[in-house]
Amino acid sequence: xxxxxxxxxxxxxxxxxxxxxxxxxxxxxxxxxxxxxxxxxxxxxxxxxxxxxxxxxxxxxxxxxxxxxxxxxxxxxxxxxxxxxxxxxxxxxxxxxxxxxxxxxxxxxxxxxx
Amino acid sequence: xxxxxxxxxxxxxxxxxxxxxxxxxxxxxxxxxxxxxxxxxxxxxxxxxxxxxxxxxxxxxxxxxxxxxxxxxxxxxxxxxxxxxxxxxxxxxxxxxxxxxxxxxxxxxxxxxx
Lengths: 114, 114
Prior knowledge:
The complex is a heterodimer of chains A (about 110) and B (about 110).
Chain A: E1 3-5, E2 10-14, E3 19-21, E4 24-26, E5 33-39, E6 46-52, E7 59-61, E8 64-69, E9 74-79, E10 88-95, E11 103-104, E12 108-113
Chain B: E1 4-7, E2 10-13, E3 19-25, E4 32-38, E5 44-51, E6 57-58, E7 67-73, E8 76-81, E9 90-97, E10 103-105, E11 109-113
Parallel strand pairs in B: 2-11
Antiparallel strand pairs in B: 1-3, 3-8, 4-5, 4-9, 5-6, 7-8, 9-10, 9-11
């Protein structure tokens, strides 16, 4: 069975602070995919990143960075110099396929105050 | 990225009525669409996988007679909540698989059953 754990329910930061969201996953598959999605208050899910199990390279995209460590089954997400627009719920997800079907984590609410 | 349109964004109905939610892929053909349900401050739970031209595959515990899914064309899937009751009130989100790519999500439909 697949499982995704996002232990942090809510994180509150002041603008310009960095924030790291934890994601720990469980799977017996040797090939799998990990995703991060952002859900702003409007409700739609915005794709942020997809990573396959064979690619442990960390990735940076602007203020976003991801740290994938198979040894600890973690795929953590860091927002650097947070902004108010980063306020949203962030979901980590696991899938056997590159396109889903997803097992979502519970989500982490990020609140960035000015 | 690809655009998935979901309509309506919000619906309020009386108990016992049926409600139809549409999910359209606007700029691509989607052979596979997914329907999710999200309770307040909770994660997304996959309800069913909708394949064009065939019956939907429902997840365990989802009543197929209560949540009717039709995927009659490559750009449209519909979810009908039949004889809705207050416990069906929720946020419903669809997504569509883009061939050789990822899932893209609609903006969601907030259903309130009085």
